[in-house]
Amino acid sequence: MLVNPLVYANEALRVVMKPQIAHMPLVWSVAGLVAAIALMGGFGFRRFHRMVVGAQK
Predict the structure, then answer these.
(1) What is the pTM (predicted TM-score) of this model?
(2) What is the C-alpha separation between 53 and 47, in angstroms, rounded?
């Protein structure tokens, strides 16, 4: 369940909108989102780079 980045986005939104309800700390939510963006961005960049280099051959 904690692999899904939408969980972290949902928890961060919950912190902002309803702080009186129990939730995951905002630091962990932001860290999860940053990690997901870095991981997916890395995969996307590598795939894009392979497509560009392969097209030039």
Answers:
(1) 0.79
(2) 10
